[in-house]
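Pasting as-is:
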Amino acid sequence: MLIAGGGLIGLLLGIACAGAGLEVAIVDPVDPAAVLDEGFDGRCSAVAYGSHRVLVALGLWPQIGPWAEPISEIRVADDESSLFLHYDHRQLETGVPLGYVVENRVLRRVLIERARSLRTLSFLARFAVGSADTSTFAAVVTLSDGHRVRSRLLVAADGRKSRLRRAAGIPVVKWRYQQTAIVTMIQHEYPHGGIAVEHFLPAGPFAILPMTDDRSSIVWTERGELAARLIALPYKEFGGELAARFGDFLGAVKPVGPRWTYPLELMLAERYVARRMALVGEAAHVIHPIAGQGLNLGMRDVAALAELVVDTRRLGLDIGADTVLGRYQRWRRFDTLLLATITDGLNRLFSNSIAPVQLARDLGFAAVHRLPPLTRFLMRHAMGLVGDLPRLVRGEPL
């Protein structure tokens, strides 16, 4: 198997398959030292409980866990409304956390270290995929240095601008939101108690993700033109704007570390497979970060594809066969379309201040409060525990 793209999803897929005995090569143009630098990516990821099970099953959690903050509660509030949704892990019989918040650079460090330790995994950093030719029998990739690599299965994990997806002629449905996410980190006066907050403002969601050491990660959605002005403000003025939206429930707050901006968009590939090729992660789908589910969606891609490929290899069959790829596409399509529809709809529903729509939102909040079984179902869905789950998501080894 050859994986184009050594980001979080490409690395995780390579580790899962190589750990089960497959020969895997990961090709990525970026220097690993660069992606581990603190200034490369300021994002944190909300790792849902189902994704946590994947990391446990692959033996990665002991290295990640000390840097992860459990999410014990999620509170979803609508601007000035007195009503809010409250998800509490104690409402579930298992009592496990709803998920964990981990810095992306921690995930990258652990994944790169594991990738380098696996005998059957070759990590070809600082190389790009120049071209790829597929036939009935194999995929042949030409690297940027002219070398050619032959594989039964080519996996495009090369992100939302995937060259392999475009080269395969796979169309996409895509639109830009008129929103930009401002990402930064804050220190606050009082402990957060492991509570994640999603506060819907007219411009978009303002998310507070609990981190270790009484810090929180902020994902602050604004209209694109205003986000550019906010990010350019001096430290004191930026801190004042942030505090005005954050509130005082955790006492005094101050931004710490760099700031980043990420334009928001939705992108769905019309197909997740081509001849001897599968798309995973953002090569296949990009969704609004309103529910923090982007990475979790990609991790379920990994779990499904790894299971199919490993089981096929154990039977001595062709891992790149159309039957295998067809099963992968059918398995992943519904989950992806459902979550993309939900996140897009929530963003449109909450990112406005129209009075009748606000009333409808309040009525919806009140209805969920009065239906505990529905609340528990929504919690399990947010935890990634609903649907046809791959073995890794169930916490079982490949």
